[in-house]
Amino acid sequence: MTRLALLADIHGNEVALKAVLDDIAAYTRVDQIVVAGDVVNWGPHNVAVIEHITRAGWAVLRGNQEWYILDQDTPRAPEMWNRYTVARWTRQQLGSHWLNVIATWPDALALRFRDAPTLRVVHGSPNSHFEGIFPRMSDTEIAAILTNVEEETVIAAHTHLPLDRQVERWHVLNPGSVGMPLDGRMEATYLILDGDWSGWRGTLRRVPFDPEPILREFARLHFANICGATGRLVIEEFKTSRLHVLPFLVWSREHPDEPEDVLLARYLAGEVDPWAYTPPDYHINL
Questions:
Q1: Structural domain of residue 260, as residue ranges?
Q2: Distance (Å, whole) CA 157 – CA 202
Q3: 215 is a domain residue
Q4: Exposure of 116 by Cβ count < 10 A (0-12 exposed, 13-18 middle, 19+ buried)?
Q5: Which of 6, 83, 102, 284 could form a disulfide with 175 if both were Cys (CB 3.0 to 4.6 A apart)?
Q6: Does residue 36 share a domain with residue 171?
């Protein structure tokens, strides 16, 4: 039997990563650790996280956050990406050495162990880093996304929401998020995956972590001042384990004539219910 630890969406959060590694060490032995993208960006410990993953020799792929930092301010980037303040801040943190390392990561992994069926690991979906497979989706919707996937076990991340579903011939799993939980619980999630010729079985692990060191590091780095409104909302996401950047953007479109700083002050003062502007895919109980 092969035993894997599946991690995803670390987002530069060294505190949560350390909590997960401590849990793995106490809970079980694993043959390999696999990271399904979004290693960096959003959190404050980007260099520390990528250094650890590289030093440990884990299997890792790029997610959409890696695409942002690699392509921003290049001819490959959509114009909208060039306005992403956090991606630019992260790129400056990493420097050319780590950007060149990320440039060599694959966009998907095909895992082929001798004692178990093959696995396909992607970040969002087999079609795009930006397309998620959500728990609220119907079997028909998920099957349409997977229609060209040969492997019968698929690991997908990106949504930050754990998933373990059998959909027609595919077993679809999502380990949730190590560094940026979005279900209202200050817990890093990851999967232990056991495989033999009968298939792969996932065990979801939840690990509490303390957000205070993360918030202190944001303050030390003057993150909110440098990254503006988005930076301030990212900090709120780390405080609450809920979406804030996207709800703010959706709500602010209803007020196109108001300055961003005024809108941000209103949002942070509690005038807006973020839940009302959160995509329905996140309106679930886990």
A1: 221-282
A2: 14
A3: no
A4: buried
A5: 6
A6: yes
Of 42, 154, 150, nearest to 88 by C-alpha is 42
What DSSP line would sit under 159-194, residue for residue? S---EEEEETTEEEEE---SS---SS--EEEEEEEE
Give me the tens of pLDDT residue by residue for the chain, a chain 286 residues long. 999 999 999 999 999 999 999 999 999 899 999 999 999 999 999 999 999 999 999 999 999 999 999 999 999 999 999 999 999 999 999 999 999 999 999 999 999 999 999 999 999 999 999 999 999 999 999 999 999 999 999 999 999 999 999 999 999 999 999 999 999 999 999 999 999 999 999 999 999 999 999 999 999 999 999 999 999 999 999 999 999 999 999 999 999 999 999 999 999 999 999 999 999 998 875 4
* Same domain for 230 and 186: no
Number of domain units in the chain: 2
Of residues 37, 33, 43, 35, the one with CA closest to residue 11: 43
* 169 and 43, same domain (yes or no): yes
Show which of 208, 237, 257 is a domain's final residue: 208
Domain co-membership, 227 together with 200: no
Claim: this prediction has a pTM higher than 0.90:
yes
Task: Scan for tokens 């077993």, then name that residue.
Answer: 171
- For residues 257 and 138, membership in a common domain is answered with no
Do 128 and 241 fall within a single domain?
no
Identity at 278, one-letter amino acid code: T
Same domain assignment for residues 263 and 200: no
Question: Which residues neighbour 179 within 8 Å (Cβ) at sequence distance 6 or greater?
Answer: 9, 10, 11, 12, 13, 16, 17, 42, 43, 49, 188
Neighbouring C-beta atoms of residue 202, cutoff 10 Å: 21
Q: Which CA distances in Å does 116 have to 30, 113, 119?
A: 15, 6, 9
Residue 216 within any structural domain of the chain: no
Q: Is 184 in the same domain as 228?
A: no
Q: What's the half-sphere exposure (Cβ side, CA atoms, 13 Å) at 132?
A: 20
